[in-house]
Amino acid sequence: MKKLKTAVRKWRRMRLFRKRDDLSAARQLSADQGPSTSGTPAHIPRHVPTDLQLEPDEGQKLREQHLRQFAFFQLRIHLKRGQNLVAMDKNGTSDPYVKFKAGGRLLHKSRIVYRDLNPVWDECFTVPIEDPFVPVQLKVFDYDWGLQDDFMGSCYLDLTALELGRTQDLVLCLRDPNKPSLDMGEIVLNVTLWPKSQEDKEQVGANRN
Protein backbone atom coordinates (compact mmCIF):
# COMPACT_ATOMS: atom_id res chain seq x y z
CA MET A 1 0.00 0.00 0.00
CA LYS A 2 2.81 2.38 0.84
CA LYS A 3 4.50 1.66 -2.50
CA LEU A 4 1.24 2.40 -4.34
CA LYS A 5 0.86 5.82 -2.69
CA THR A 6 4.48 6.68 -3.51
CA ALA A 7 3.96 5.75 -7.17
CA VAL A 8 0.80 7.92 -7.41
CA ARG A 9 2.59 10.96 -5.97
CA LYS A 10 5.47 10.47 -8.40
CA TRP A 11 3.08 10.24 -11.38
CA ARG A 12 1.27 13.47 -10.33
CA ARG A 13 4.57 15.38 -10.04
CA MET A 14 5.66 14.23 -13.50
CA ARG A 15 2.30 15.33 -14.98
CA LEU A 16 2.54 18.77 -13.31
CA PHE A 17 6.08 19.35 -14.61
CA ARG A 18 4.96 18.37 -18.13
CA LYS A 19 2.10 20.94 -18.08
CA ARG A 20 4.51 23.66 -16.91
CA ASP A 21 6.93 22.82 -19.72
CA ASP A 22 4.15 22.91 -22.33
CA LEU A 23 2.89 26.27 -21.01
CA SER A 24 6.41 27.77 -21.07
CA ALA A 25 6.97 26.58 -24.61
CA ALA A 26 3.68 28.08 -25.75
CA ARG A 27 4.52 31.45 -24.14
CA GLN A 28 7.95 31.47 -25.74
CA LEU A 29 6.47 30.77 -29.18
CA SER A 30 3.98 33.60 -28.77
CA ALA A 31 6.74 36.03 -27.70
CA ASP A 32 8.88 35.13 -30.71
CA GLN A 33 6.05 35.74 -33.19
CA GLY A 34 4.80 38.99 -31.62
CA PRO A 35 1.35 39.82 -30.29
CA SER A 36 -1.61 38.61 -32.30
CA THR A 37 -4.48 40.80 -33.40
CA SER A 38 -8.09 40.14 -32.65
CA GLY A 39 -9.30 37.23 -34.74
CA THR A 40 -5.80 36.43 -36.03
CA PRO A 41 -3.97 33.44 -34.54
CA ALA A 42 -0.42 34.15 -33.38
CA HIS A 43 1.04 31.47 -35.64
CA ILE A 44 -0.42 33.06 -38.84
CA PRO A 45 1.75 35.92 -40.17
CA ARG A 46 -0.14 39.13 -40.85
CA HIS A 47 0.07 40.62 -44.38
CA VAL A 48 1.52 44.13 -44.60
CA PRO A 49 1.08 45.81 -48.01
CA THR A 50 4.36 46.86 -49.56
CA ASP A 51 2.90 49.92 -51.35
CA LEU A 52 0.04 51.90 -49.92
CA GLN A 53 -2.50 53.43 -52.33
CA LEU A 54 -3.12 57.07 -51.43
CA GLU A 55 -6.62 58.47 -51.80
CA PRO A 56 -7.05 61.28 -54.37
CA ASP A 57 -7.07 64.77 -52.99
CA GLU A 58 -10.41 65.18 -51.24
CA GLY A 59 -10.63 68.85 -52.13
CA GLN A 60 -10.24 68.10 -55.83
CA LYS A 61 -12.83 65.32 -55.66
CA LEU A 62 -15.35 67.61 -54.00
CA ARG A 63 -14.69 70.29 -56.62
CA GLU A 64 -15.26 67.82 -59.44
CA GLN A 65 -18.52 66.66 -57.86
CA HIS A 66 -19.61 70.28 -57.53
CA LEU A 67 -18.88 71.03 -61.19
CA ARG A 68 -20.80 67.95 -62.36
CA GLN A 69 -23.96 69.26 -60.70
CA PHE A 70 -24.46 71.86 -63.45
CA ALA A 71 -25.82 71.25 -66.93
CA PHE A 72 -23.36 73.60 -68.63
CA PHE A 73 -21.39 76.82 -68.14
CA GLN A 74 -20.76 80.15 -69.77
CA LEU A 75 -17.18 81.33 -70.10
CA ARG A 76 -16.40 85.01 -70.57
CA ILE A 77 -12.86 85.87 -71.64
CA HIS A 78 -11.35 89.31 -71.87
CA LEU A 79 -8.19 88.99 -73.95
CA LYS A 80 -6.21 91.98 -72.75
CA ARG A 81 -2.70 91.87 -74.17
CA GLY A 82 0.51 90.00 -74.89
CA GLN A 83 3.85 90.66 -73.22
CA ASN A 84 7.37 90.07 -74.58
CA LEU A 85 6.27 87.92 -77.51
CA VAL A 86 8.91 86.44 -79.81
CA ALA A 87 9.97 88.19 -83.02
CA MET A 88 9.24 86.10 -86.10
CA ASP A 89 9.84 88.63 -88.88
CA LYS A 90 13.15 89.85 -90.29
CA ASN A 91 12.44 93.37 -89.05
CA GLY A 92 12.49 92.12 -85.45
CA THR A 93 8.73 92.26 -84.88
CA SER A 94 5.65 90.03 -85.32
CA ASP A 95 2.00 90.40 -86.35
CA PRO A 96 0.38 88.32 -83.58
CA TYR A 97 -3.14 87.01 -83.18
CA VAL A 98 -4.63 84.40 -80.82
CA LYS A 99 -6.82 81.34 -81.41
CA PHE A 100 -8.90 79.83 -78.58
CA LYS A 101 -9.85 76.16 -78.92
CA ALA A 102 -11.51 73.52 -76.71
CA GLY A 103 -11.87 69.88 -77.71
CA GLY A 104 -10.78 70.71 -81.26
CA ARG A 105 -13.50 73.39 -81.62
CA LEU A 106 -12.56 76.97 -82.43
CA LEU A 107 -14.04 79.28 -79.78
CA HIS A 108 -12.59 82.60 -80.89
CA LYS A 109 -9.97 84.14 -83.16
CA SER A 110 -8.63 87.55 -82.24
CA ARG A 111 -7.78 90.36 -84.60
CA ILE A 112 -4.23 90.82 -85.84
CA VAL A 113 -2.02 93.45 -84.19
CA TYR A 114 0.69 94.44 -86.67
CA ARG A 115 4.36 94.92 -85.85
CA ASP A 116 4.05 94.64 -82.08
CA LEU A 117 5.65 92.27 -79.54
CA ASN A 118 3.49 93.72 -76.76
CA PRO A 119 0.12 93.74 -78.54
CA VAL A 120 -3.05 95.09 -76.93
CA TRP A 121 -6.13 93.22 -78.18
CA ASP A 122 -8.71 94.31 -75.59
CA GLU A 123 -11.30 91.84 -76.90
CA CYS A 124 -14.17 90.20 -75.00
CA PHE A 125 -16.20 87.14 -75.96
CA THR A 126 -18.54 84.67 -74.22
CA VAL A 127 -18.90 81.00 -75.17
CA PRO A 128 -20.93 78.05 -73.78
CA ILE A 129 -18.93 75.29 -72.08
CA GLU A 130 -20.46 71.83 -71.66
CA ASP A 131 -17.43 70.06 -70.23
CA PRO A 132 -15.33 72.17 -67.83
CA PHE A 133 -12.80 69.35 -67.55
CA VAL A 134 -11.60 70.05 -71.11
CA PRO A 135 -9.04 72.88 -70.93
CA VAL A 136 -9.12 75.82 -73.32
CA GLN A 137 -6.01 75.99 -75.49
CA LEU A 138 -4.56 79.32 -76.61
CA LYS A 139 -2.28 79.42 -79.65
CA VAL A 140 -0.52 82.56 -80.81
CA PHE A 141 0.49 82.97 -84.46
CA ASP A 142 2.41 85.51 -86.51
CA TYR A 143 0.35 86.50 -89.54
CA ASP A 144 2.20 86.18 -92.87
CA TRP A 145 0.47 87.48 -95.98
CA GLY A 146 0.16 84.68 -98.52
CA LEU A 147 2.30 82.30 -96.46
CA GLN A 148 1.73 79.87 -93.61
CA ASP A 149 1.44 81.72 -90.30
CA ASP A 150 4.29 81.12 -87.86
CA PHE A 151 3.64 79.50 -84.49
CA MET A 152 4.50 81.80 -81.57
CA GLY A 153 3.67 79.57 -78.58
CA SER A 154 0.69 78.07 -76.78
CA CYS A 155 -0.75 77.69 -73.29
CA TYR A 156 -3.77 76.18 -71.55
CA LEU A 157 -6.56 77.63 -69.44
CA ASP A 158 -7.64 75.12 -66.77
CA LEU A 159 -11.34 75.80 -66.17
CA THR A 160 -11.51 73.53 -63.10
CA ALA A 161 -9.12 75.86 -61.28
CA LEU A 162 -11.49 78.83 -61.64
CA GLU A 163 -13.80 79.94 -58.86
CA LEU A 164 -17.35 79.90 -60.21
CA GLY A 165 -18.95 83.29 -60.73
CA ARG A 166 -15.78 85.19 -59.81
CA THR A 167 -13.78 87.25 -62.30
CA GLN A 168 -10.06 86.44 -62.20
CA ASP A 169 -6.99 88.02 -63.78
CA LEU A 170 -4.56 85.49 -65.24
CA VAL A 171 -1.12 85.63 -66.81
CA LEU A 172 -0.37 82.54 -68.94
CA CYS A 173 3.14 81.70 -70.12
CA LEU A 174 3.55 80.71 -73.76
CA ARG A 175 5.61 77.64 -74.58
CA ASP A 176 6.69 75.64 -77.61
CA PRO A 177 6.30 71.85 -77.00
CA ASN A 178 9.37 71.27 -79.17
CA LYS A 179 11.41 73.85 -77.23
CA PRO A 180 10.11 73.67 -73.64
CA SER A 181 12.92 75.78 -72.19
CA LEU A 182 12.33 78.71 -74.56
CA ASP A 183 10.53 81.73 -73.09
CA MET A 184 7.97 82.93 -75.66
CA GLY A 185 6.23 85.64 -73.66
CA GLU A 186 2.90 85.85 -71.85
CA ILE A 187 -0.81 86.35 -72.47
CA VAL A 188 -2.82 88.47 -70.02
CA LEU A 189 -6.48 87.51 -69.57
CA ASN A 190 -9.51 88.27 -67.48
CA VAL A 191 -11.88 85.28 -67.20
CA THR A 192 -15.20 84.38 -65.56
CA LEU A 193 -16.94 80.99 -65.51
CA TRP A 194 -20.67 80.93 -64.65
CA PRO A 195 -22.66 77.76 -63.92
CA LYS A 196 -25.97 77.44 -65.77
CA SER A 197 -29.09 75.30 -65.34
CA GLN A 198 -30.73 72.88 -67.76
CA GLU A 199 -33.33 75.55 -68.58
CA ASP A 200 -30.55 77.97 -69.51
CA LYS A 201 -29.01 75.32 -71.75
CA GLU A 202 -32.30 74.70 -73.54
CA GLN A 203 -32.79 78.44 -73.99
CA VAL A 204 -29.37 78.79 -75.59
CA GLY A 205 -30.18 75.90 -77.93
CA ALA A 206 -33.51 77.55 -78.90
CA ASN A 207 -31.76 80.84 -79.67
CA ARG A 208 -29.31 79.04 -81.96
CA ASN A 209 -32.17 77.49 -83.92
Structural write-up:
- There is one protein chain.
- The strands form 2 sheets. A 4-stranded antiparallel beta sheet has the order 4-1-8-7. Strands 3-2-5-6 form a 4-stranded antiparallel beta sheet, with no helix packed on it.
- Helix content is 25%, strand content 32%.
- It is elongated.
- The chain has 3 helices and 8 strands.
- By secondary structure, the chain is α+β, with helices and mostly antiparallel strands.
- Residues 29-54 have low confidence and may be disordered.
- The termini are far apart.
Provide a concise account of the structure shown.
By secondary structure, the chain is of the alpha+beta class. It has helices spanning 2-33, 58-67, 198-208; strands at residues 72-83, 96-102, 105-109, 120-129, 136-142, 150-157, 168-173, 186-196. It is built from three helices and eight strands, in the order ααββββββββα.
Spatially, the strands of the biggest sheet line up as 4-1-8-7
Outline type: elongated
Q: Helix share of residues?
A: 25-40%
Number of helices: 3
Kindly name the structural category. Answer: alpha+beta
Order of helices and strands: HHEEEEEEEEH
DSSP E strands, number: 8
Instruction: Compute the CA-based radius of gyration.
Output: 37 Å
N- and C-termini, Cα separation: 119 Å
Strand content: 25-35%
Biased composition (Polar residues): 30-40
Organism: Iphiclides podalirius (scarce swallowtail)
Region (Disordered): 24-47
Protein name: C2 domain-containing protein
